[in-house]
Amino acid sequence: MDITRPDRRRFLLAAGATAAAGVLPLQVLAAEAAAQRIGIIGSGRVGSALGTSWAKAGHTVMFSSLDLEHDKKLAAGIGANARAGTPREAAAFGEILLISVPYGALPQLGKDLGGLLKGKMVIDTCNPFPNRDGEIANWAREKGAGVASAELLPGARIVRAFNAVGAARMAEAAQRQGPRSGMPMAGDDAAAIAVATRLVRDAGFEPVLVGGLAAMGKHLMPGTPLAGERSPEDIRKIAATLN
Ligand SMILES: NC(=O)c1ccc[n+]([C@@H]2O[C@H](COP(=O)([O-])OP(=O)(O)OC[C@H]3O[C@@H](n4cnc5c(N)ncnc54)[C@H](OP(=O)(O)O)[C@@H]3O)[C@@H](O)[C@H]2O)c1
Predict the structure, then answer these.
(1) Which secondary structure element, helix H or strand E, spans residue 40, and what is its range?
(2) Residue nearest to atom 18 of ligand 1 (CA)
């Protein structure tokens, strides 16, 4: 991306301004500071790792998947800050949702959740892989994963994050000592970005907002220059070269 392009420059200026605590709207600051109710849809490797970290950080999580018994056991093992429900219950419970399912499940999930997604902040970890997800993955790759997810989850205020770091690293990042790895994020909604920023930090990573969903969402998946674990500074440098 050409950082000298006016739209890119405007985005970075706006993002920088939003990140400066002094000018954040009060409701965004409040959301950033408060413990959140988080609905987790997809409690597999990623959902269980992040949900566990967030519960330990003081948030309240509801796990959901296609297997309620699994989610009840997962929640019971974590304690008072975790519970289990159906995907619709988790979507209603969460002020913010983590959606972490195989990409091929998104079209049906979007229909199942319907109006519950309207206006909801959503962190989208889902990556399209044709060999796992079928034709929808080719469509999403062509369109760009950020925009594609937004189309499949209508009304959701999506932030892409946690897309190209292994779930095993997510599981232990909050306990790790030393400098934190950066976590690239892309989104368009200031309040959703603010809450996601807090949650990325509580999961043990340093958040790096790299751009909007259309421009940068497509770069947040495995196999791109931003994939893998990098320092925040390296993420910023790489993001500035992408378009
Ligand atoms: N694994 C990684 O290292 C990693 C890293 C970054 C991003 N990602 C991406 O994040 C997403 C999740 O990855 P994962 O490794 O956590 O997958 P996973 O271990 O296979 O877990 C997927 C979860 O989604 C649930 N699920 C499937 N269809 C559903 C539906 N229609 N409604 C509700 N829940 C549904 C599954 O429930 P059941 O078990 O009951 O079927 C399971 O809990 C994928 O898109 C993946 O590409 C993965």
Answers:
(1) strand 37-41
(2) 44
- Could you give the CA distance from residue 50 to residue 162 in angstroms, rounded to a whole number? 9
Dist CA 40 CA 90 (whole Å): 6
Return d(Cα 70, Cα 86) in angstroms, integer. Answer: 11
The superfamily in CATH containing domain 6-239 is NAD(P)-binding Rossmann-like Domain (3.40.50.720)
Query: What's this model's pTM, rounded to 2 decimal places?
Result: 0.90
User: What one-letter code names the amino acid at 121?
Assistant: M
Enter the DSSP assignment of 155.
T
H helices of the chain, in order, are 6-19, 26-33, 45-56, 68-78, 87-93, 106-113, 130-133, 135-143, 145-152, 167-172, 190-202, 213-216, 232-239
41/25 Cα distance (integer angstroms):
29
Closest ligand 1 atom, residue 45 Cα:
16
Ligand 1 pocket at CB < 6 A: 41-47, 65-67, 87, 100-103, 105, 108-109, 125-127, 162-163, 166-167
Rounded to whole angstroms, how far apart are CA atoms 128 and 181?
A: 24
pLDDT band at 243 (very low <50, low <70, confident <90, very high): confident
Band (pLDDT 50/70/90 cuts) for residue 25 is: low
What tokens were used for 115?
């109006």
